[in-house]
Amino acid sequence: MGDEINENCSTCETETSGTRTAHHDEKIIKELINRLNRIEGQVRGVKGMIERHVYCDDVLNQITSAQSALDGVSKLLLEKHFKSCVKDRLSQGDDEVIDELLKTIFRMKR
């Protein structure tokens, strides 16, 4: 992800293929990747606990911890999405982003 974004490019830009991309700064990307790497380790740990026949309650506590960590990643990404992608699309008159965002939030709340 380069720093060169042309002046007509929105934060969540639609490429010619129709796929949108996010343009978050490298600090945020690094933070998200670090969190996801830790979560990946937690999930591998849960798998190992099950393979070792660790007491169910202990495994469930580790699963809850991994889910909480994923929720943290979701909240951070949602915050950045609001402050960049959604803000840019609204400023360009794209009100469809509101329905898209509501669907995403409702899905997250299930």
UniProtKB/TrEMBL annotation:
Provide the taxonomic classification: Bacteria, Bacillati, Bacillota, Clostridia, Eubacteriales
Protein name (record): Copper-sensing transcriptional repressor CsoR
What segments bear the compositional bias annotation Polar residues?
7-20
Q: Enumerate the CDD domains for this protein.
A: SaCsoR-like_DUF156
Q: Name one Pfam family in it.
A: Trns_repr_metal
Q: Which organism is it from?
A: Desulfitobacterium dichloroeliminans (strain LMG P-21439 / DCA1)
Q: From its record, what is one biological process in GO terms? A: negative regulation of DNA-templated transcription
Which InterPro entries does the protein's record reference? Metal_Tscrpt_repr (IPR003735), Metal_Tscrpt_repr_sf (IPR038390)
Instruction: Cite the GO molecular-function annotations of the record.
Output: DNA binding; metal ion binding
**Renumbered residue ranges of the record's region Disordered:** 1-23
